[in-house]
Amino acid sequence: MGIDYSQKIPNNVDLSSDRQLQRALEKWQPHFIDWWKEMGPEGFQQKDVYLRTATSVDAKGWASYGMVQMPEYRWGIFLADQVEDRRIGFGDHMGEPVWQQVPGEHRSDLRRLIVTQGDTEPASVEQQRLLGTNCPSLYDMRNLFQVNVEEGRHLWAMVYLLQAYFGRDGREEAEELLVRHSGDVNNPRILSTFNEPIDDWMSFFSFTYFTDRDGKFQLKMLAESAFDPLSRTCRFMLTEEAHHMFVGETGLGRVIKRACEVMNELKTDDPARVRDHGAIDLPLVQKYLNFWYSSSLDLFGADKSTNAAAYFATGIKGRPDEDKFEDHVEADTEYAIEEPDADGKGIHQLKVPTRNAMNLIARRGYSKDCEIGLTRWNRAIKKAGIDFELTLPSERFRRSVGPFADFAMNPQGQPISRDEYDKNIYDWIPSPSDKAFVKSLMRQVVEPGKMAGWLAPPDRGINNQPVDYEYVRL
Length: 474
Ligand SMILES: [Fe+2]
Ligand SMILES: [Fe+2]
What we know:
With 474 residues, the chain is mainly α. It has a single domain (15-473), classed as Orthogonal Bundle (Ribonucleotide Reductase, subunit A), CATH 1.10.620.20. 47% of the residues lie in helices and 6% in strands. The strands form two sheets. A three-stranded antiparallel sheet has the order 2-1-5. Strands 3-4 form a two-stranded antiparallel ribbon. The two termini are 37 Å apart. One fe (ii) ion binds at residues 121, 151, 154, 215, 241.
């Protein structure tokens, strides 16, 4: 079904046939715009930005590009096409028809999942609101704003579900999503990672690489849901999400490329000299990977979870790419997980019902997906003739959730003493002085085609435009 842009709220759900819902959403719309103007990108609301807008939900040619002022962006409700006779693909109800309405017994679980997902979307816009003021190029500024408007669109996606399927509670939750704010002491966002400001571009690229990828995996799991409207919503969100990870992967890739160029130019592998030359040294890139990977792993929840088991059993939430698994029921199967010994000095394995390990299974898929970028970056480093390899730290390193939470582990995943951990932590994650150095590089570059000195230009522009296209008219 095509998207109807003649309506106040663009949509492909035939919104005008449900007057009550249409009225509720049209009442929410100005609140959203007020939120965007107040909490969205600071300083660029009246500028023309070269943005893509969804025009259909087809895999091919689904978007058009043009100059838009962000508050005029056509945020709307777009669901992937309904799959005819879709059946539940896993759990105790495998093979039964999917649900077009919310079953009463799953109402509060589904609402919680949708609210939690919905909360992260505007949270990231709030976290990133100052990044336009120190962007490394116009091209990057445009990509930032593209990510931001699409996170706003993802909020619309969740608010539609709340308003359409959860009655009065849903309407209240929709309002609350605009009232909580990232970092607000009295009314913070739900997940702690989404309450830290992202005010430098190394953090932004790391966030889009690691944290948006967690988002991708959450969406993949919800795309399996027996609640069909949720599944269809998430399937289309995944199409948009791919660009966010592209921004992260190519952003970090360009930082790495620039570091290699400087190392070769100066014929040095001394990080201090690379920094003197205004580039970000590879060991510092590694510290950013260690920090963001470990905090993103926490977003998957506990390795052993009765909630996750229940979601799988009932059909609310599946595994990412459920059809790639052999057994879709996992009734009596077991899965090996690991835990630290009580004294913290060793690690042992134990078996738990597979259903209880769903978070861990999803997280393992995520880790594999994270490796793809590293392989590309390492290939580029090797090609530049430099002997350095970026790695992901152990999944036990620096965790706040799961069995290794609050156990001192080094990036190789070996138990160490708390003293040793504290002494070495800033060899592993960015130290205050590393962060101060990165901050010192963050100066706005806005001449079309020009790049800050700490990253290489992109290989190509957006939508076949040249790299020096005026992506934002200032
Ligand atoms: Fe999103
Ligand atoms: Fe995203």
